[in-house]
Amino acid sequence: VCVLYTQAIGNKEWREFGRTEVIDNTLNPDFVRKFIMDYFFEERENLRFDFYDVDSKSPNLSKHDFLGQMFCTLGEIVGSQGSRLEKSIVGIPGKKCGTVIVTAEELGCCRDSVLMQFCANKLDKKDFFGKSDPFLVFHRSNEDGSFTICHKTEVVKNTLNPVWQAFKISVRALCNGDYDRTIKVEVYDWDRDGSHDFIGEFTTSYRELSRGQSQFNVYEVINPKKKGKKKKYVNSGTVTLLSFLIETEVSFLDYIKGGTQINFTVAIDFTASNGNPLQPTSLHYMNPYQLNAYGMALRAVGEIIQDYDSDKMFPALGFGARLPPDGRVSHEFALNGNPQNPYCHGIDGVMEAYYRSLKSVQLYGPTNFAPVINHVARYAASVKDGSQYFVLLIITDGVISDMAQTKESIVNASKLPMSIIIVGVGPAEFDAMEELDGDVVRISSRGRFAERDIVQFVPFRDYIDRSGNHVLSMARLAKDVLAEIPEQFLSYMRVRGIKPSPAPPPYTPPIHVLQTQI
């Protein structure tokens, strides 16, 4: 049997998530039971798989033989080629425990949208002068029998035979992916004062609607009050489904599964405004006992992104420092000291190069962002086919000197497969960074607007809790910083009309030859 545990974000304690079925008498089990979990790109979700040899009916695991375990993150599985991860089982010292293969797939029902159009005939007249002004309200039913509103059509004025515009709604919103769940539709007559008159209602389901335009999809609109009072009451009109089209939305995971790589680049602010790294007040203070703000931001974001980058090699750059031996100022230098090959191995490699640089360069100025943005843009411009996407993390104390050039660089970069994350550390006012973020007003340069919003800014101070318990703040920081990336990624692919590559064929286990012992 395999037992899956997940870890709570705050207290790190492992909780049992579920167990597979027990397969008797085999060393090569192929488990059927699947675990259905929520996936968030922006969260690090730690998983632990424990394996046991089941000897009795007891649910208590201590009564069975432990065969080993495997640790990974959900992102690691999803980010592996074809979303298939193969890893050694560990946990029994000095013993080879075998390997485990875990595959992940996104549930399909959650991603369809439907485009529907309705019309109505002979609805009840509700207005004293003129006819009714009808509109429809759609509700999905919940597990407990209550209803939740999920769509309202527009109002069609002064008619008892309205034709409403087609509308698009996700299958999730319409019926939570359950094709047989009741969908209730109410018909109202719109009134200016908001006291809309109820004309009647009918119920249907996704499965019925999916038959499309047919005699099955003509519904009698019934007003229960009228039905109770009048013996001769037939209905309050009919509503007819005119068309029903299913569209499958492609998701971020479709591209990842098809092999799109996310390339992660870090750029660190080495300007003098950060303070002398030898002083505890400096944002670059090299504290032997805990990470400084730069180190924390780097780790929080990097540990999640690295699961989506197959070679785990990250270019790490610095800007705003004077470099040895001659003291020239650079706004785009390699932290590892090798301009030909600025790549560091893993987030640990980036941290190491960062600390090494702090010892060798002199913090200086000014604070120019454009060179590092252009550096990543050069790479992004060379692969526009959707096979790679670039994420630049800039960590800065926020006092920017080249605002006009930076805006120009961002507007140019918005046409490329890249996103920029800016983490502001320290106590400065980050008004300029908020402007670059472009959530309120789309960023522009010399009259040209950015094609898409590609910048996400967060101030680091919002994530340091007073108790000094950084763990929670690191998880929240990563969440807020990375949450917009999948949408920015999809907006690039959509604008360029790039479809995901087909995933590699699913893995089929080799057929084991049964060996008989003589």
Automatic annotation (TrEMBL):
Residues 263-464 form the VWFA domain. GO terms for cellular component: plasma membrane. Residues 1-87, 96-219 form the C2 domain. CDD domains: C2A_Copine (cd04048), C2B_Copine (cd04047), vWA_copine_like (cd01459). The keyword Repeat applies. Keywords: Calcium, Metal-binding, Repeat. One of its GO terms (molecular function) is calcium-dependent phospholipid binding. It holds the Pfam family Copine. The keyword Endoplasmic reticulum does not apply. InterPro entries: C2_dom, C2_domain_sf, C2B_Copine, Copine, Copine_C, VWF_A, vWFA_dom_sf. It comes from the Eukaryota. Coiled coil: none annotated. GO terms for biological process: cellular response to calcium ion. Belongs to the copine family. This is CPNE8 protein. The gene is Cpne8.
